[in-house]
Fold:
Amino acid sequence: MPHVPPPTHDGPGGGYALPVPELADSPVLLLGPLLRYVGTRQATVWVETDRPCRVEVLGHEALTFEVEGHHYALVRVGGLQPGEEVPYDVALDGARVWPAPDSPYPPPTIRALTDDHHRHRIAFGSCRLAMPDEPPYTLDPGDHRKGVGPDALQALARRALEDPSCLPDLLLLLGDQVYVEEGAPKARAVIEERRDTTQPPGNGPADFEEYTLLYRESWSPPLVRWLLATVPTAMVFDDHEVHDDWNISESWRHDIWSESWWESRITGAYMSYWCYQHLGNLTPSDLDDEGLIRAALAGGRDLSRELREAAGQWCRTTDGSRWSYCRDIGGSRLVVVDSRAGRVLHDGRRDMLDDEEWGWLEQQLTGDVDHLVVASSLPILLLPALHHVETWSERVCDGAWGPAMARLGERIRRGADLEHWAAFDRSFRRLIGLLADVSAGRRGRPPGSVVLVSGDVHHAYLARMAFRRGSGIQVPVVQLVSSPLRNPLPPVHRWGLRMAARPGVAGFVRLIARLAGARPSPVRWAPTTTPIFDNQIATLTLEQRRAEVAIEIAEPGADEGLRERLRERIA
Structure:
């Protein structure tokens, strides 16, 4: 495929236009800055530029590195004081380029965390389509075929502009930051000019170059760009960033690798994830653990060949890669678990994580913290009826009802996306066992709460976990799900989920699963409210041993603000 130059900067608003071959006289900030990690004394700031250059933030510098004609830098900022708030700008080759002199927004600010037990807030969500922030796209899908509703991320930014005290301490994006199948109309227009989209993979990304277009369109709207420059972000990928059924089963992997376009797609997905998401997820101390990352931070090099070779390995085996990570926030710990790329699907084995990553996770899931927050793009606890459907599916696909039903079960599994923790029963039980040990005080002093946060399922709910008698559980264990940021379900799907939330339906499906040989669940749970389907964002507030959750929906209208739908004390 011919190389297409990256889209050019489109002024202080941060949009982008169709590519042009000419370069400006001085370096241009194409995307960013993104404030990624912030601790008590250190921070990292990520940028993409149009050429090699020196990037400076608060007196700290980094040289860009190159990947297939694109240039990136991750600037490590040190010398912060706990609780300090420091406005910052970005300079390229000594010239200040961000924020623009005529920017209508306040300057981005690094707010260092405190190292004590004061209040900290984590806002989170998933599943955000990149669509214009104007009618008809901001309309409800029931009112217009192009409608996807207002953007909860931009609504959060609007509120923060009015009241900076509302800014969270961390924005956790739990998957589907970009969509390979839909959204991003500007990026797809470029893709259609680039190649014949009547041939597979259609107007979805075919390679690394086309992935860069999706990221730029998703993160370039002015409000989003300001928010990501102001609030530290942590991320993890999910299926729609690669393929709808990514790693759903061993037979799916076999089928997809027979497609001629797949290797280029999956390699580009890993390369772009490494550049746009993974680098910023890591703490400054973790950045020195991997040779390829050390080379990127040294700057001044073209890493195209090394990154492409590494991505070719990552997409075939889990050996040598780990996308899960951990951050400490005040006295609490956040553990983000990759529940997509690290799956083991070969020789009849089905596991969410390989043995090495399970070992790492066991080291992170301990007590002796104020709160333990475990993030997974996929809910660990689905609505109970859906959980039992997935346990039934795994048994049937494994042959519990014979070969013919196993083949039918595989078609059902793919068609209905039956791929969550419930469909990996051994992994589900292993994780529940670890959480039980933490909350019972068998892995250190019990935290004030254990909170599971997830996205993916395009509805929100809070569920409290109940363990069997005699398990020794001393603290609450809850699942909080918030999805989507901007991609609402059609009405028929909402009706189906409301039906699934009824207790009688869950009991019936549990019986069917038992008839297929599914083991009884080691825990019980039920949502505390009916499912919430609007575009939304959730906030988890942690203060000493207390914890509270809130879910707010993005309301349509002139201001497109946030309205609270749920608030509940956890601990």
